[in-house]
Amino acid sequence: MPDNPIVQSAAAAGMSRYGQIARQLQDGILAGEWPPGSAIPAESALASRFGTALGTIRQAIAVLVQQGLLERVQGKGTFVRNGLSGGLPGASMMRFFRFRAESDGEATATATPMVPRSEILSCRSVRLDKTMAARFALGTGARGLAISRRRWVADHPRLLESIWLPLPGCAALQDIPTAEWGELLYPMLSQHCGITVHRAMDEVTFRPLEAGEAEQLALPASHPCALVTRQAFDIQGQCVEYRLTRGDAYAFRYAAEIR
User: Fold this and answer.
1) How confident is the model at residue 235 (pLDDT cuts 50, 70, 90)?
2) The dihedral of CA 157, 119, 138, 27: what is its sign?
3) Which residues form a coiled coil (predicted)?
4) H or E stretch at 148
5) What is the pLDDT of residue 227?
6) What global pTM score does this model have?
7) Which of 13, 110, 115, 229 has the fewest CB atoms in 10 Å of its CB?
């Protein structure tokens, strides 16, 4: 089983009855018994299934809600989270940047990060190097999709991205003309490849833009660059995407509330 905080949490609670049930529910979800977006059985049905009290079932569900595997919808039930494949704003790279409008010099700052226009510059099958193959838990000689994407805001190039996806899991994308790709990658992975991106890890560093990168973003050579490195994982904890996103460091903005 991949190293996964959900697995670790349920295992840690495994000595209790509700922890055991949480682990069994988790195993059912990971095995596909309840796919992402689907409802799990009602609490009463689960109590009958496991031969336990409703309060124990509620505690078990609470463990998986806290860990982000399940979500409660008022008046509808408890559902397996769709993760990031629904195009949730929190997954957007735009949350790291506030770009200035050319007309009025004001920085764009909305409560919900905007969805920039996506331009696929290239998409090709490549042999993954040893490091990249290891990220996807693939062996020597494994292949993947290497995608170059530029993202536009108000007719100006703002982000330049290099994306790697494992093959054969993402092979269906090769059958879709790049001109027909949507603005967001994760809904495409869900719809065409059956891959649900459950969580992602982003790391931000800074460096000068290389000459080719600067040209693609209409910026001077060696302009300061904010580099966001992302690894995205499916519900089983398997890495399904590695991404490098470059943008103007002067537009970098990020805020977090700490309590």
Assistant:
1) confident
2) positive
3) none
4) strand 143-153
5) 97
6) 0.78
7) 110
Which residues on adjacent β-strands are paired with residue 107?
100
Q: Report the pLDDT value the prediction gives residue 89, as an integer from 0 to 100.
A: 55
In order of 71, 106, 116, 180, the CA distances from 184 in angstroms are 23, 26, 9, 12
Alpha-carbon gap, residue 185 to 119, rounded angstroms:
12
Q: What is the 8-class DSSP label of residue 37?
A: T
Alpha-helix runs per DSSP H in the chain: 5-12, 17-30, 43-50, 54-66, 130-135, 185-193, 211-216
Question: By the 8 A CB rule, do 22 and 29 touch?
Answer: no
Residue 142 pairs in a beta bridge with none
pLDDT in tens, 27-78: 888 778 888 888 999 999 999 999 999 999 999 999 888 877 898 998 899 9
Domain parsing of the chain, residue ranges: 17-80, 91-102+114-251
Looking at domain 91-102+114-251, its CATH superfamily turns out to be Chorismate lyase-like (3.40.1410.10)
Is the pLDDT at 132 greater than 90, yes or no?
yes
- pLDDT tier, 254 (very low <50, low <70, confident <90, very high otherwise): confident
